[in-house]
Amino acid sequence: MDKFILTLVIIGAINWGCIGFFGLDVVGVLFGGQGSFVSRVIYALVGLAGLWALTFYAKLRSGTSNS
Does the record's keyword annotation contain Transmembrane helix (predicted)? Predict the structure, then answer.
């Protein structure tokens, strides 16, 4: 599960980088615009993945991993 979450966080980071550097929302372009249902689901999953990734700090501190 952690690998899937990390993949979503990376997708989100790359998308934000493209928005910042080029003004291009890759997720929006690929899935029918920012308001499309599919894009909104992807944005929501990336957001939830970011929240889940916060738990990685506790795992780093304790030295455990569930990957």
Answer: yes
